[in-house]
Design a protein that fits this description.
Blueprint: H1 15-18, H2 26-41, H3 46-49, H4 60-82, H5 94-100, H6 108-127, H7 131-134, E1 137-140, E2 143-146, H8 147-169
Helix pairs in contact: 2-6, 2-8, 4-6, 4-8
Length: 170
């Protein structure tokens, strides 16, 4: 089993995300969250997915695209560090990624299918990892981080946006 990280295993910025899963088994939470997302988002129509809660805010479709991008990045970082690669990993600009991902013809259902595929891959990555490997250190965005912190950040980031979707969009 992989434990939750200690606060010195990640940049303090991510505490907002990680605090959302305190006291939980991260692997079980990763799996449960996949069902929570799909159950909630399958009821959203294409028209609804193109709506934002305020002017200048992302649409539901864009929020899900962001979640997908970040999960890919966090799990790539986790894989890289878990495999012993010691190269510092670059940061990313989530706004630039969002602007570059514009695809007005893409259906919301494809974003949801993509989330399910990415999450399934994430589950395989972490489910087959031991505690020792999860405690390996690397550098990402100029900050020291452990693999298990990246797991917690993945879950917490998605939980954060799921809460925003529930409170502001649905």
């Amino acid at each position: 089993m992989i434990s939750l990280p200690q606060k010195d295993e990640y940049n303090a910025f991510y505490q907002t995300y990680i605090s959302q899963i305190e006291g939980q088994n991260p692997i079980e939470r990763l799996k449960k969250q996949k069902t929570e997302f799909t159950d909630l988002l399958k009821a959203i129509t294409e028209e609804q997915s193109n709506s934002a809660y305020a002017e200048g805010k992302w649409t539901i479709k864009e929020v899900l695209n962001h979640i997908n991008d970040i999960e890919r990045i966090f799990t790539f970082r986790a894989l890289t560090i878990a495999r012993g690669d010691e190269q510092p990993l670059p940061g990313m600009d989530h706004n630039l990624y969002q602007v570059s991902a514009k695809n007005p013809k893409r259906l919301f259902s494809s974003y949801l299918e993509e989330f399910e595929a990415i999450r399934t891959a994430s589950m395989f990555l972490f489910d087959n990892m031991d505690e020792e490997t999860s405690m390996r250190w690397g550098t990402a965005s100029d900050n020291k981080v452990t693999v298990r912190a990246l797991l917690a950040m993945t879950i917490g980031h998605a939980a954060h946006h799921l809460q925003i979707l529930k409170e502001r969009y649905l």
